[in-house]
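ok new one. same drill as before - structure tokens go in, u give me an amino acid for every spot. 157 of them this time. try not to just spam alanines like last time pls lmao
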């Protein structure tokens, strides 16, 4: 199984880049991993919120393969404990999912087509965070889940 982190927007800002790179490197010891930063549509500033979400959704759907397991990050999704996330990732691996994709949508969320395509909607918190911080939190939490799966000491219970 390969883990993919997809995010719509700009490249990692310097204030989170080091942490993201650290946790991404650590995750690589457990699963192959790849980041995909999806640029906003070229005419994004001239589009209203709904049109922008629609364009971003079209971009995402073009990148997805039919058998990809898509996890949408959304504050209205299901909240998982670290242990539950570890079990969730282990279950995906046991089911031989080839690609598991964690998607951080655009500034205004995602289109209905993406919400419908998602296999699971996950919330890191009921709080709303800047996308850059979500990237860091996501990478740290997936790393934490990997250490729980392997019963390693990073996660203190």
């Amino acid at each position: 199984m390969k883990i993919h982190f997809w995010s719509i927007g700009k490249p990692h800002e310097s204030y989170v880049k080091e942490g993201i790179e650290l946790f991404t490197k650590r995750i690589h010891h457990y699963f192959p991993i790849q980041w995909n930063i999806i640029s906003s549509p070229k005419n994004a500033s001239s589009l209203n919120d709904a049109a922008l979400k629609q364009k971003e959704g079209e971009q995402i759907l073009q990148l997805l393969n039919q058998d990809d397991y898509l996890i949408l990050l959304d504050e209205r999704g299901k909240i998982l404990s670290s242990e539950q996330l570890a079990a969730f990732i282990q279950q995906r691996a046991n089911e031989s999912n080839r690609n598991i994709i964690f998607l951080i949508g655009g500034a205004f969320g995602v289109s209905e087509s993406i919400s419908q395509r998602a296999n699971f909607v996950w919330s890191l918190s009921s709080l709303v965070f800047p996308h850059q911080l979500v990237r860091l939190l996501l990478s740290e939490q997936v790393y934490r889940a990997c250490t729980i799966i392997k019963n390693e000491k990073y996660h203190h219970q």
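The two ends are 27 Å apart (CA to CA). and btw The domain at 7-149 is CATH 3.40.1280.10 (Alpha/beta knot).
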